[in-house]
Amino acid sequence: MTAMGEWLKQIILLVILAALADLLLPTKAMQRYVRAVMGVAILAAMLQPFLPYLRSDWADRAAAAIDAELAQPPAGVQAPAAAGIEDVLKAQQAEAADDLLGRRLAEDIAEAFGGPAPTVRVTGAATGAAASVDIRIDPRLASQADAIAAWTADQLQIPRGRVTVHAG
User: Which stretches are transmembrane (predicted)?
Assistant: First the structure.
C-alpha cells in the first residue's frame, strides 16, 4: 500500500508542478511546449508501476512468483494434514496404476493365448519390487496356466513366484 501512496504523491506533485509552470510562463508560444513536456512526464509517472511488465522476462518473473506462492501451504492448513493428503494421493495413484496394468495385462494375455480375457489383479505395481499378480483364467485355458504365469512374469520382469494363475 505504501508503494501506491508514493506513486500517487509523485503524480500529484507532477500535476502541481505542471500547473505552476503553466502559470509562470509569460508567452502562449512556450505554453504549448511546456504542456506537452509535462503531459509526457505525467504519463510516464502514471505508467511507472506497469513498466516492469513490459520487459521481456515478465512472464518468467510472474511464474516464479506464482510458484513461490503455491509452494507455501495455505493458511490454516498444517503440514501434517498436507502430508496426510499427499499419502492419500499417492495411494490412489498406486491403485490406479495397478488397475491400468491389470487391464492391459488382461488384454495382452487374451491376445497372446487366445480365449476370453482373464481377470487380472495387480498389487504393488507402483513400487516395482513388491509387485504381485493374481490371474483368473477361463477353465478352458487351465492347461496353459504355467505358460501364462511365465509369460506374465517375463513381461513384468518379476520373479515367477509373484504370479499366481487360477482356473475358474
Answer: 7-27, 33-51
Looking at the 3D structure of the chain, how many domains does it have? 2
Residue 16 has pLDDT above 90, yes or no: yes
Integer Cα distance of 108 and 114 in angstroms: 10
138 lies in the same domain as 105: yes
HSE, CB side, 13 Å, CA atoms: give it for residue 126: 12
Tell how many helices (H) and how many strands (E) occur in the chain: 5, 3
Determine contact, residues 153/162, Cβ cutoff 8 Å. Answer: yes
Average pLDDT over residues 45-65: 77
Same-domain status, 123 and 153? yes
pLDDT digits (tens, 9 = 90+) for 79-133: 556 667 888 888 888 888 888 888 888 888 888 888 888 888 888 877 665 688 8
